[in-house]
Automatic annotation (TrEMBL):
Domain annotation FAD-binding: ranges: 3-343
Organism of this sequence: Massilia norwichensis
Gene Ontology MF term list: monooxygenase activity
Gene3D superfamilies: 3.30.70.2450, FAD/NAD(P)-binding domain
Cofactors that this protein relies on: FAD
Origin superkingdom: Bacteria
UniProt name for this protein: FAD-dependent monooxygenase
Stored InterPro entries: FAD-bd (IPR002938), FAD/NAD-bd_sf (IPR036188), RIFMO-like (IPR050641)
Amino acid sequence: MTRTEVLIAGAGPTGLVLALFLTRQGVNVRIVDKTAGPGTSSRAVAVQARTLELYRQIGLAEHVVEAGHINPGISLWVKGQRRAHVSFGDAGAGLTPYPFVLMYPQDRHERLLIAQLEDMGVQVERDTELLDFSPHEGHVELRLRGPGGKEETCEALYLAGCDGAHSLVRHRLGASFEGGTYDQLFYVADVRVRGRQADGQIHISLDDADFLALFSYSDDGSARLIGTIRDERAAHPEALGFDDVRGRAIQGLGLQIDEVNWFSTYKVHHRLTAHFRHGRVFLLGDAAHIHSPAGGQGMNTGIGDAINLAWKLKAVLRGEADDKLLDSYDSERLAFAHKLVETTDRVFTFVSAEGNFANFVRTRIAPLFVSAAYSVDAVKEFMFRLVSQCMLNYHGSPLSGAGAGKLKGGDRLPWAAGASADNYAPTGKLDWQVHVYGEADEVLSSWCHRHGLQLRVFDWERAHEHAGFARGAAYLVRPDGYLATADGAGKPDALRDYLEGIGYRRFTSD
């Protein structure tokens, strides 16, 4: 019987990133998908700054940025007139190496991830469907159907369900998926456009009882168009084609549509499962949570799930940590998913609400509010942090310990912008680090060296103080770039006690 450490069901971005990060850490994986090949339409297009920060640690971010299209800002339009403009660069400068929203169509994104996996000797097993599984005390038994209908029984130590909104893994677990479906009918189209707004930025039209958005993802006019269909035509979506919505696109944003590569209609759902971990089985991405496309959060959240889980699985599989470490995947990512569903639900409800008052607020008040708000630096920074997922923290996590300076356990490691040494520079491996901004204590240096724990010392600069670091403090940084705990005096005892407390044995034996 074939055995593997982790079997991943589903080869979308979530499953591919999980396979990539596990393989980079030496974990044996199989990744299966029932489709014959990767997707051929753009689907999710936004790659947020936090995703790029995490990609940078494995040398992937620059490939994605080079292949994608940087959207430097967003404009709001009402009745053909621009009423507000927001610059991402102004809002994100100093917060991240990637102060923009990157447009990178999902089909291209998947192909890049697949190529990275193949370079490491991992092939996606296509035309291979997970039919059933049975969890046992020390493994999961799985039944697969491969090409030609041939069935196979195999074992894995863990199963990761990355198989989308209609997840077989979730169904077989009997897990809940509470939520609902919005009434409005949306359409999505991949188009090639010309016109005054085909300028590489994001444009949103908020006309009465209508919503329309254009997301450019190349310099040749290729773009994603999203809009609502509110009249009687919405009752028969199967009969609709792009010609039925073309006029609205031309009127709202002054576009000339030269080519339509893909068109589809859909309803927006918002659903969330109650638990992301079920013993040796995990749910990730759309299998665990789906929400409105507001803010381009969905794919990025699934990727975040994968990276959060990957380093924890590796630690448990290699005997470095107790199995209870895996419980933190459930608590950390479930809490974030709850916040995300609530936030995107509020935004979606606002842009899609009907009625005269809703139209007045959306078309008259909202553009004025956005213009005024973005003249305040603190508001600009808050909004960028929110959309880019740089605001994500794990303050309530059982893995979040003490802080130092202005930083707390569970914070994203701040990027020390303007510093002579980049504290986000990749180290070549996904592992724990200790950061000291100032001078490192000799006892700390000796402890880190003895346990093979990388110590990174940065000469103290004003940028570090601005980012919230305390001079000379020791910050223990998780493999996924979040602060675990800190000791203001720069001593190792608190770090060792923290690691012992979470059942992480690798750095605690003397």
